Amino acid sequence: MLELVNLSNYSTDLELIRNNADNLSGFLQRNNLNGLEMMFCAPWNPAVHRKEWIHGVHLHFWPSWLDFWRGDRQELLRQYDTEQSIVSIYGGLLREDWLNRYRKNIQQAVEAEAKYVVFHVCHNRMSEIFDWKFGATDREVTEAFIEVLSELVDSIPAEMTILFENLWWPGLTLRDKGLLAMLLESVRHENVGIMLDTGHLMNTNPALRSQEEGIEFVLRTLDGLGPYRESIRGIHLHYSLSGNYMTTVRRKDWRELTLPEAFQHVMAIDQHLPFDTPDVRRILDYVQPDWLVHEFVQKASDDWESKVIRQRQALVAGGKRA
Questions:
Q1: Nearest 5°: phi and psi at 240?
Q2: Which of 33, 60, 103, 150 is 20 to 30 A off residue 253, Cα-Cα?
Q3: Mean pLDDT across 239-243
Q4: Which of 76-80, 83-87, 318-322 is predicted least confidently?
Q5: What's the DSSP call for residue 155?
Q6: Tens digits of per-residue pLDDT, 31-52?
Q7: Residue 303: CB partners within 8 Å, gap ≥ 6?
């Protein structure tokens, strides 16, 4: 098993390491980490994010894409007002324009010689993240994503593993074994699997109130997947206990919100906090992943490092107790 951290080459993440490979190398070495799961938000600079550190690439994701894929121009204009806004988000007005954005991102992963790529399998309109009145079902989102992937799979080398990440919005939540089976069995690729996101899974159950309850819920859910749990190849490890927030916040004036405000709302749900109970080791022992990603929202370099240290200490303590 390799232990990784998530990182992007967006400006805020470059500031964390002062855009310097030596600083990043020191961070990885101090914390006994094997490397990175990268997200490329700009052209890749191998002098900063060295190829030998990049084990996986989290591909770009569009929280709302199903209306574009279906060609529902009226709904898109309702959401985004102008065709120019639609083009700025999806790269054009045609499916192929959007698919080419995906292909360029996949090519970056190929150039970095990543061992795996991660896709989000979910969809929600901006309004739905506030009122929770979803216009698509888990099945509709999953079936449409299968169509998208069928157009992209030829761009992904056979030796590169495709991992599907669970979320709590409509799509792949890991709460439906049948949908998971349909997704995994539909892909024309030799290497496919699941990137289990523990915090995202916890977000599907607003009743959770402690890390221990969350761990029990994760393990019960995985057990319910039957043989398909063997498809879990990686873990995004963190926890989220936002049930009170999710059940109390409902806003209808979403069109007046800025994108930063919407992002803050999502982050209030998806907390990305480090586990500090040794019980978290039970998830690791149950899954036995190839890749373990300590996935956090990094506010500053010392904040990032303290979160990694806390979670790794909990895993070590859990291993000693077992």
A1: -145, 130
A2: 60
A3: 96
A4: 318-322
A5: G
A6: 999 999 999 999 999 999 999 9
A7: none
Write the single-letter amino acid at 311: Q
Is a pLDDT exceeding 90 seen at residue 321? Answer: no
Q: What is the DSSP string of 173-207?
A: -SS-HHHHHHHHHH--SS-EEEEEEHHHHHTT-TT
Q: Coil, strand, or helix at residue 239?
A: strand
86-113 in b/e burial notation, b at 16+ Cβ within 10 A?
A: beebbbbeebeebbeebeebbebbeebe
Tens digit of each residue's pLDDT (9 = 90 or more) over 157-207: 999 999 999 999 999 999 999 999 999 999 999 999 999 999 999 999 999
Cβ neighbours of residue 15 under 8 Å, at least 6 residues apart? none
Helix, coil or strand: residue 159? coil
* Three-state secondary structure of 243-294: HHHHHHCCCCCHHHCCHHHHHHHHHHHCCCECCCCHHHHHHHHHHCCCEEEE
Q: pTM, whole model, 2 decimals?
A: 0.97
